[in-house]
Every structure is written in C-alpha cells, then in structure tokens.
Amino acid sequence: MVGDQVEGYSIYQWWVIVYTIFSAFCDHQFLLTKRGITDKLQRVFWPFLRTFTRSILLERTLILIKPDAIQRGLMGEIASRFEAKGLKIAGCKMMQLDNAILDAHYVHLTDKPFYPRLQEFMSATPVIAMCLEGFEAVDAVRELCGVTNSRKAAPGTIRGDLGMSMQCNLVHASDSTESAVDEVARFFQPNELYSYSGALDTVVYADDER
Fold this sequence. Notes:
Blueprint: E1 5-6, E2 9-10, H1 11-26, H2 29-34, H3 37-57, E3 58-65, H4 67-71, H5 75-85, E4 88-95, H6 99-105, H7 115-122, E5 127-135, H8 137-145, H9 158-162, E6 171-173, H10 177-187, H11 201-204
Antiparallel strand pairs: 1-2, 3-5, 3-6, 4-5
C-alpha cells in the first residue's frame, strides 16, 4: 500500500492529512464541552485509524542467509540480530536455489559477466529464506544488514561485524517495499507465512503502533 497513489498523494500522505485533521478536531474544547462529540468520534474512529496505520506501516520483507553464512555457522547469530531488533519471523525455511529461481531473483544481473560466479556461489549450499515482519521493516532490515560491501559496512551491522567481502556478504535483503512484495511471493507460498501476536509486542512498539 505504501507505493499506491490517490489523486496525486500517496496513501501515507493521505493518512497524515486525515490523522492531522482528526486530531485537531478531537482537541477542539468547544465540541468536547458542548456536545461530547469528541468522545464519540474517538470511540468510533480511533480504532479505525490504528488499523489503518498498521496496514500502511506494517511491512514484510525477504532475507536470504547466504551460503557463506551457512558454511561459517552464522545462521543463529544472524537470525538473533533480527529478533533482538524486534522484528517478527513470519516465515522461515531452508532451500536449495536452482537456476530458475536465481535467474528470476537476479534478473537485473543475468547479463553481467560476473553472474555465473554469483550463480555458483548462491547454489553452493542451501540458503535460509526468512520473511520478516515489522513496522517499516524493509528499511529497518536494510539498515541492520549494512551496505553491500562488508568491508565498508558500519560496525554494529551484520555485515560490518561479521563480513569482509562484497560477494560473500552473508545476507540478501529486499531493497524496497515493492521488491519485498515480489521477493516474498517468489520464495514463500501463502500457507508458509504466519501472523501472530508476540508476547513482547507491548514493549517493542508504542500503543499507537500496535
């Protein structure tokens, strides 16, 4: 929904407009004291706005734990970084990538001279495919992974702490909300993804983010 446009504005921009008007309306003391309309509006529309907020900001994104991480025994370390961040694992499986799925996943690179080497690397061992869920998860995961060249990735990121290579950089992460939708669908069937409440949701997010 983040990329959708309505009359020149994104869905997110429309939400900001509606939310701002609604908040100002609810703060109008005249309405509160004269008719009690504010309380009624809050009871009726506040749950709707909270649900609408979640539908806009709650995202799912794809992570692939690459063969170099598998061979180095870093699967648990990497997965724990995402969980410690507060991201929820909506789907997880080990799979062997064949040429068909690699060609679809790296369609923008198939004509590059280094692609055969990349193809060989990504099929050297099985990978772990993970679908992560959270508010603005795409950007949060990208920041947590660090830049593509592990040698230049910031300390504290997965690549910055654990990697030293451009190709052997441990993880793949979706680079936009649009590609996240496509990539999650490429690696997971709908019945392989789960929605559930986490015991720590109340301390990971503020009230208006749940």
